[in-house]
Amino acid sequence: MQSVIVHYQEIALKGRNRPWFVERLVSNIRSATADLGLRRVRALMGRIEVQYESGDTWGEVRDRLARLPGIANFSKAVRCPCDFEVIAETVLGELADLEVESFRVTAQRADKRFPLRSPEIERQLGGRIKAARGWRVDLERPALTVRVETLTDEAYCYLSKESGAGGLPSGVSGRVACLLSGGIDSPVAAYRMVRRGCRVRLIHFHSYPILSHTSQDKVAEIAERLTRSQLETRLYVVAFGDIQRQVVLAVPPALRVVVYRRLMLRIAERIARASGAMALVTGEAVGQVASQTLDNMAIIDSVVSMPVLRPLVGMDKDEIVREARQLGTYEISIIPDEDCCTLFTPKHPTTKAKAREVEAAEHALGVEPLVDGAVAAAIRQDLTFPASVAPSARDE
């Protein structure tokens, strides 16, 4: 029997609500590993244990836990009875095939009834290891850290830590709807909301068949990547090309980008409310393009009544690219394509749109029928991870 000890960080600060957060994280771990034949996932004292049968499964278990929000770090561990002599024997057995120059022991006594305090466990176990292996003790920069955690009836010993995604478990913070292009920014914005515990709906606007199908293909792949973290994703695909044609005929060139964005937000809000989302999310950052000046953001946001969240609003492009690489969406996003943001874009869009001018242009356009038609024709796709596991009722 193999064990993985999962630690959380931010969840530990939730006070009386902590059991509910832990329960959701346990549920998400079960869902993320449902096709791997794990034996058990259970909450312990301030940590979670994942039990699995075969050592051959560890690589896949590690990859999936590393992507799951709510996990600070995790370790492949050996479980043994909570007795110091047994712990020492177990640790020495784990060290039998290793050769290092220096080491230290770090102990956590979760159950204070264990007769030895944490510093005493460290000193006595460190002495056993030094006598048996002759390694030098280094408390500052050890080549190896031996970690021991004592609970009520059992103890866990492990030699390495894997980093988790951090944040909060997906599903604890409600639903939001993210406008997702095939570019670099919006997938990062969506993932940031996933890490804050939100279930993120995705809404993609495309101009097919005026432009190619590439942006839709890219978004489908990005949605799959995000689903590996939030486990369940609902993607809405909205045809926007014909709307843009009508905007070109009715709206002055300088105002078209602002009108495009206002129409997108109106459509997205309708879809978001119908799907139970409480806020919209975009990948905008202040000053990045013409529509993302403070003046234009204010004009654009004024057409919706739900909050518009911008997780990247104060970031620069280098920071966003770095996060996209870490997320694994960067290589997808840079595939050349044509999306609706580039269709019929004027050479000199305004950076300081006036509400009166924009509203007059929209009055000539006739907004409501365009929004109604786009919402009615939106195509919905539900994704789950692992794909072989049916979606749960909790996301309905």
Layout: helices, strands, pairs:
Blueprint: E1 2-7, H1 18-32, E2 40-43, E3 48-52, H2 58-66, E4 73-81, H3 84-94, E5 102-109, H4 118-133, E6 136-137, E7 144-150, E8 154-158, E9 162-163, E10 175-179, H5 185-195, E11 199-206, H6 214-230, E12 232-239, H7 241-250, H8 256-274, E13 280-281, H9 294-301, E14 308-309, H10 317-327, H11 330-333, H12 355-365, H13 367-377, E15 379-384
Parallel strand pairs: 5-6, 5-7, 10-11, 10-13, 11-12, 13-14
Antiparallel strand pairs: 1-3, 1-4, 2-3, 4-8, 4-9, 7-8, 12-15
Helix pairs in contact: 3-4, 5-6, 5-10, 7-12, 8-9, 8-13
Describe this structure in words.
The structure is a single chain. This protein is α/β, with parallel strands linked by helices and 396 residues long. The protein folds into 2 domains: 162 residues, 2-Layer Sandwich (VC0802-like); 221 residues, HUPs (Rossmann fold, 3-Layer(aba) Sandwich), CATH 3.40.50.620. Helix content is 39%, strand content 20%. Strands 1, 2, 3, 4, 5, 6, 7, 8 and 9 form a 9-stranded mixed beta sheet that branches. A 6-stranded mixed beta sheet has the order 14-13-10-11-12-15, with helices on both faces. Strand 13, helix 9 and strand 14 form a beta-alpha-beta unit. Helix 7 crosses helix 12. The longest helix is centred in the last third of the chain and has 19 residues. It starts with a strand and ends in a 12-residue tail after the last strand. The model has no long low-confidence stretch (mean pLDDT 93).
